[in-house]
Structures are given as C-alpha cells and as structure tokens.
Specification:
This protein is mainly β. Helices cover 14% and strands 38% of the residues. The strands form three sheets. Strands 4-3-7-10-11-6-5 form a seven-stranded antiparallel β-sheet. The longest helix is centred in the middle third of the chain and has 9 residues. The N terminus is likely disordered.
C-alpha cells in the first residue's frame, strides 16, 4: 500500500487563463484539493447557458442505479447545476488522456465567475441530435441525458437522469 501527499497544480498564463502549451505560472491548489484520495474516472458534464454558450464542469462523483439510470453528485451552487435544473438535459463524456489539461481547467474555474471558460480552452461543441445539450468534440464516449429528478443531500444535490443515447467515437 502506498501513501503519499499530493498537490494539485493548474497551468495558467499571466492573466490567470488556462494555458496548455506554454504556461507562465503554476497555481498550487494545495494538498487538500485532492481530498478524495484515490484516482477515479473523470467525466465532463456539458450544458448550455441561458445565452446558448457551452458550460462544462469536471466531475468524478457519478454512479449507476440498479435500474440503469445515472446519478451525478453536483454541488447546488455550480453553474452546471443551475443549467441542468433549467434545461433538464446535459451530456456526460468520459475523457481520455488528450483532454486532461482541459478537464483540469474545468475543475478549477467556475462558470459563475468565468462564463466563457469553455471557449478559452479552444474546444468545440456540436448540438446533440436528441436533447438540448452540447456534445464536446474529441470525446470518445458521450452519454446524452435527460433529468429525472434532483434529490437534495447535505452537501450535494443528486441529479438522477436516464440516458437517451450513448455515442462512441
């Protein structure tokens, strides 16, 4: 068994924007940023904002129910939670190594403070054919979801959804 102390580092340019190629500075989020303690798959949850721009968050708290529905643990103060509640639809993408820099950025910047965070990464999205949600180009597996219900908890709201379509690229 291996125990280690970890710090999470995000690469930024001089203005505090995400920078993949030539970062100027690193922002140390501290060892408590990796609070859950074990590696898990990372997901991108994508929604549309009120102005039709794309909002994406990184998420690793998800599970399947016995009936096959998907449950996401999304904090109630997040822009994504607000969008899911309004639109009742979103996509969930399982990411691979080539999107790690972008998913790190999505996990450290909130759409409430940086509404154009998706555009800053240079990624592109297309509209889903089945629901009112974006599909991020470059994602290998995308699950298109419709909201069933939101269940309140102590720290997180649980968004239960049924998947409409699963696309593999």
């Amino acid at each position: 068994m291996l125990f280690c102390k970890c710090s999470v580092i995000v690469y930024l340019d001089r203005d505090g924007n995400f920078e993949k190629e030539k970062p100027i500075m690193m922002k140390d989020l501290g060892r408590n940023a990796f609070g859950f303690g074990w590696p898990v798959p990372v997901l991108m949850v994508a929604t549309y904002n009120d102005d039709q721009t794309v909002n994406v968050m990184s998420l690793h708290e998800a599970m399947r129910t016995n009936s096959g529905d998907l449950v996401l643990c999304i904090g109630p103060r997040s822009k994504t939670h607000e969008n899911v509640e309004k639109r009742k639809a979103f996509t969930v993408a399982l990411i691979d190594q080539k999107l790690m820099s972008e998913i790190d950025y999505f996990g450290t910047v909130t759409g409430n403070r940086v509404p154009d965070k998706f555009e800053r990464t240079g990624l592109k999205a297309i509209r889903s054919k089945h629901i009112d949600a974006p599909v991020i180009e470059g994602s290998r597996v995308v699950i298109e979801c419709e909201l069933i219900e939101i269940v309140t908890g102590t720290k997180f709201y649980y968004c239960a959804c049924e998947s409409c379509e699963c696309c593999c690229r």
